[in-house]
Amino acid sequence: TIRLDRENISSIGKLRSLGEIHSLYLQQNQIKKIENLDCFPNLRFLCLAGNLIQRVENLQPLPHLCALDLSHNQIQVLDTEELPRSLRILDLTGNECTLQHGYRELVVAALPHLLQLDAEPIHGNTGEEEEGGGSSSSEEEDEELLPEPSIPFTVDRDFFVDLHRELARRSQRRRRESLEEHQARLEELRERRDLLLGPGWE
Question: Is residue 153 a contact partner of residue 119, using CB atoms and an 8 Å limit?
Fold first, then answer.
């Protein structure tokens, strides 16, 4: 996780590839353009709230992005083709683009996996497979790990942190259950070995 919020940053510079970074916080800065994010190929959470951004762009190099906060910027017209189709949570509140006719329907139609838009749940989206190809096992695992929000996420509640904690908690539970199953199998093998090699067997 990288936290650079409230640092008076005016632009996103070009960085070396940082594949291990999954969460990036850049809210409350002076950033005018979304750029140079291809150095974070595994980014899942991106917060750019409270900046000076006028266009949604250059997000396609982020195929795993599932939560994006662009609230309270200066986006007047939204080009939905610039939004990664992997998004589950999107916040554009406080932007003029939300006043476009048919805005919500347009966004929902463009993002088949979206669960929440502007702190309001999306009803009907089930994260179905895209035409022409099935979901990979990693995508299915993401679907299972990602909880459907039960309460509205907001920047003030630091919703990226809340969601990441929930993902981590579920992942830990899965690992714990797997370990318990492994230990049970080992114990069963030990019992069989004792039966085979015990007194009177030979």
Answer: yes
Euclidean distance between CA atoms 166 and 190, whole angstroms: 36
What string of DSSP letters covers 114-145? Answer: --EETTEEPSS---PPPTTSPPPHHHHHHHHH
Determine how β-strand 67-69 pairs with β-strand 120-121: unpaired
Q: What distance in Å separates the CA atoms of residue 50 and residue 27, rounded to the nearest whole number?
A: 6
pLDDT in tens, 100-158: 899 999 999 999 999 999 999 987 655 443 444 444 444 444 444 444 444 444 444 45
150/153 Cα distance (integer angstroms): 9
pLDDT digits (tens, 9 = 90+) for 154-173: 444 455 566 667 667 777 77
- β-partners of residue 45 are 23, 67
